[in-house]
Amino acid sequence: MTMKQSEKNILPVMMPPRARPADKFRLKAWHGVVLAFIAVVASIPAFAAADPTRASMFEVLARWVPLLLKGFVFNVIISMSAMAFGTMAGAALGLGQISLNPWVRKSAWFTTQFFRNAPWLVLLFFAMFLLPFEIKIGGMTIPLPDWLKAMFGLSLPVMANVSEIVRGGIASLPSGQWEAAESLAFSRTQVLWRIILPQCVKRMLPPWMNLYSILTMATVLASIVGVSEVMTLTGQALAAEGGRSDLLIPFYSFVLLLFFIYCYPIARWTVRLEKKFAVIN
Amino acid sequence: MAWTDDQPMVSIKDVHKSFGALEVLKGVSMDVMKGEVVCIIGPSGSGKSTLIRCVNALNDIQKGSILVEGQEVNDPDLDKLELRKKVGMVFQQYNLFPHKTALENIMMAPLLVLKDDKVEVEKLARQLIKKVRLEGKENNYPGELSGGQQQRVAIARSLAMNPDVMLFDEVTAALDPETVNEVLTAIKELAQDGMTCMLVTHEMAFAREVADHIYFTDRGVIVEHGSPDTFFDNATDPRTIEFLGQIL
Amino acid sequence: MEAFYEWARVLYENTGINLPFIYDSYDRDRMINGFFMTVKLSVTCLFFSVVIGIIGAWLQSSPLKWTRRIVGGYIQIFRNTPPLVQLYFFYFAIGTLLPKVTNEYGGQEPILGGFAWAVISLSFFAGAYNVEIFRSGIEAVPDSTIEAAEALGFSRLHIYKDITLPLAIRVVLPALNNNLVNLVKTTTLAYAIAVPEMLYEANQIWSDNVNVTEMMIFMLLVYFVLVGVLVWGMNRWERALKIPGFGA
Questions:
Q1: Residue in chain B nearest A179 by alpha carbon
Q2: Angle at the Cα of B190 (from B186 to B191), degrees rounded to 5?
Q3: Which of B33, B65, B222, C178 has its Cα between 20 and 30 A from that of A93?
Q4: Do the beta carbons of residue C91 and residue C151 sit within 8 Å?
Q5: Chains A and C touch (3+ CB pairs under 8 A)
Q6: B161 in contact with A at a CB cutoff of 8 Å?
């Protein structure tokens, strides 16, 4: 977390953490190897008890990989659409939280807190059960499939978190910027859009990307409410293979690996961006 | 009712300001005529920065009146934007916009607020850069400039709005001693050109040289004031004498 | 209390708003048990995740390269994979590998039940974040302070206990509180392995009574209040621990 360095009387304890020994990991490959290693080691007991007439578990896994990958792509689609909607709604809400109008400000704050305090799974249930399965606008009937409702359910916590990111980003700018801009007779809208927000976008990017990573991992929750994505398909694949207990570790490890390969680069990129923006400031 | 040159440009009458329970200004009055350079000095916490921030409505006041060119600042219906077109302010921390170059910093307000023609504004901005002796730095970002250079850009930025009064809030306090002079020179030239200035400063030698009138504040009141010679050589109040003894 | 239950029953008869967890004693008990289960889960996971965090932070400052790398690997894996899948992995994949015991009905059941696996899985999940948090707290204590302690003859353990940890705790408290709040929200995942926490019981109730809307709104309100109280309590604790003059 970055600390304010503008305070002249800070004690040394509030300085940024000292540089750590540069443990330059061989990024993804190394960690992927560890994960695969753990998966193999953990499956040895199951391996040892395996029936030689049945197909080896890695052969079985290989058979199902294409389907699981397709399922994972669907998770990514859900995460991207939920992120898009959530970000738009959240940005509006975040700006509402700094509005000069007390009603707007309080309701924006309340909405943000309300959806931030709720567990993601509860919000998902909320959307799944309370949204109708079709809506009628004008003369048209628009069906709302399960995955659309799940996407909407997941965009609610995104909205709340983006609202906080926006508010926090704006609040992190020194008040001197507001004062200088106001002293030059800029109107509030001008100050916000020309001076404050352009500076904020950079510092909002790392937490926003971190949120996307969390959201992607949260898409598996949709399996609990019956949406067909990678976890549901894994369950179905395991059932189709007759519920063999020795398949559990390879299959679940594979799903973990998929998410790791997708989310870990995002995490590293986020760290790099944070360092870059800290230096510029 | 219309304001004319013979009336004070800034007229502060019995101003009281509190931050919550803490009263910072306890009845301050002063008049600044057009073209006058006024320096406000005093120990920290005496309220001098708060005072000039009230003049351009960055702080509100609980009691009293501030008239800028006849326009009452302590008025709930005040058009702050109009007031701030007339009153320019330079801050201790410069507060340049880091995402714009020096030239863009100077040009932004006339373009977006006054909606002047872009070619004219650019010409004016380059003139101002020359005036504060920063030719060659037009396309540098604030992060690439030294403190003194940034402060001079900040002065130019406020001047671009063609204000009638300039407020300076301890503008050299955050600078290295070597760069203080370049900023003071810029302010001196501004004063010599006839700009009405209100400066909060610790630079006593500068105040003595440039000011037409000096006000000493302590704990929210004006203790003593006078022309530089009267003030520095013939101070009468014991608090003033003690303060001057500590810093001179 | 009886009057309150009656009121809920009357509410149902008159308006159709069905709150069986108030007027029906069976549902009421289920809901209360669910609440306490959520609290039990949260507190247990909090405790273990903090322990894991402290141990992990200690290990990460080890001079041995491989210790650091293994802890680093653990953190990256648990932070970049879905906690739900981690839970399934522990409960289904590892759980079925463990020996089975005979329960009181004569049936076979796994040695560790849903609650135990939920605690294990969520503690490691939250612990991964805590290691980073504690590490940044420890690093925020400057070398000079540690050196002064060494010069006074403190042993390494004493330094960690009496100097580093008290200072580090105040630095990390905001991040730790944030983690605690997230942990409380994450306990709902235990629903997926049939641990009878609040969401699970709410599901049972709405399956029986077909009052999803009321239950959902109640759930949202309960978590809103629960988390709100937690955040408020944490803020009070942060303020109580504050050292004057220290901190942003």
A1: B58
A2: 120
A3: C178
A4: no
A5: yes
A6: yes
This complex has an ipTM of 0.84
The answer to whether the Cβ–Cβ distance between B97 and A187 falls below 8 Å is no
Domain positions in chain A are: 58-129+142-280
Is the pLDDT reported for residue A30 higher than 60? Answer: no
CATH number assigned to the domain covering A58-129+142-280? 1.10.3720.10
How many Å apart are CA B71 and CA B67, to the nearest integer?
Answer: 5
Chain A closest-CA separation from residue C143 CA (Å): 9
Tokens 């909060």, residue?
B200
Distance CA A253, CA B62 (A): 67
CA dist list (Å): B119 to B107, B110, B124, B133, B135: 10, 11, 9, 21, 18
Nearest Cα to C103, choosing from C94, C95, C115, C113?
C113
Task: Answer whether A217 sits within 8 Å of C81, measured CB to CB.
Answer: yes
The whole-model pTM stands at 0.81
Q: Which of A183, A194, A197 to mutate against chain B (most B CBs within 10 Å)?
A: A183
- The answer on pLDDT for A49 being more than 70 is no
Could you read off the pLDDT of C41-87 as tens digits, one per residue?
A: 999 999 999 999 988 988 887 788 888 888 999 999 999 999 999 99
Residue B220 contacts A where some CB pair is shorter than 8 Å: no
Q: Is B205's Cβ below 8 Å from some Cβ in A?
A: no
Which chain B positions have a beta carbon within 8 Å of A177's beta carbon?
95, 97
Please write the tens of the pLDDT for every residue from B191-245. Answer: 999 999 999 998 888 999 999 999 999 999 999 899 998 888 888 888 888 888 8
Phi and psi at B66, nearest 5°, equal -125, 120
Check CB contact under 8 Å for A179 and B109: no
At least 3 CB pairs under 8 A between chains B and A: yes
- The H or E element that residue C69 is part of is helix C65-79
Contact C/B (≥3 CB pairs under 8 Å):
no
Distance, in Å, from the CA atom of A248 to the CA atom of A46, rounded to the nearest integer, reads 10
Report how many helices (DSSP H) and strands (DSSP E) chain B contains, helices first.
Answer: 9, 10
Please give the single-letter amino acid code of residue A126. Answer: F
Q: Do B84 and A198 touch (CB under 8 A)?
A: no
Q: Of the candidates A176, A179, A186, which has its C-beta nearest B109's C-beta?
A: A186
CA distance A92 to A86: 10
Domains of chain C: 2-241 (1.10.3720.10)
Nearest to A224 among C97, C192, C247 (CB): C192
Query: What residue type is B46 in one-letter code?
Result: S
Beta partners for residue B87, in sequence order:
B165
Q: Which CATH architecture has domain B10-247?
A: 3-Layer(aba) Sandwich (3.40)
